[in-house]
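Chapter summary example.
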Amino acid sequence: MLNDLTAIAVAVFDHGNAPAGVSDRQFRFDYLDERIKEKNSLSAFAYLSDDIPKIMTRLQSVADSARDLPCPLVVMDTAPAAVLGANFDSSVASRKQKVICNVGNFHTLAFRLGEKGIEGVFEHHTGEIDLAKLESLLRRLADGSLKHEDVFNDMGHGALMYSGEKFEFGKDDFDVVVTGPRRSMFMNNPTLKPYFAVPFGDMMIAGCFGLLAATAEIMPNLAETIYGSLRGGRGVAPWGNPS
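The structure predicted for these 243 residues follows.
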């Protein structure tokens, strides 16, 4: 039995509890917009269990089921966790500006990231898109022309742009960073050059690394230990670093 835990971190996808008559897709995107404007960081989607917004009922259910834990609990949205974790791939980390796409089983979410934080985001239902549609969305996310209704009116969740500047594809050895359980979509003759992120050599647990990084941000007393491990270098997994 683990009896010396300092913290536990869990990720879950949460639409939020939309009021009657309000689209749950729009409600989620209003929430994403609020969080990004308050804290322009992927860790904005992580909380200590006592700080979970009342509207985030799935996150709260996780906290309610873990009230007897002997340590603090951190909860986070799944896709931002995976995108944050993908950044620990050394090839991804070296880019100042990048587009990272998490192709999930049910939801596909892509972030455009720059030196000042999140520059844009969209979220669609994976079952509603094919590779051609996904690449079109990514191109518009990159050039700043993507509009909320482009995704929402196609039965997706929506899009948010915080920068009108263009991020050019085709200049480097890869265009878009890809992670997620349905990333194989990008193996079907893509026109964009994908890079399949492998943080610490393991693409399957990018979200776990993202959870660790978010925990370091919202629990500053653990930051030195966690970042020391995550940035220990040489492609060694965090638990393999002496720090």
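To summarize the output: The mean pLDDT is 92.
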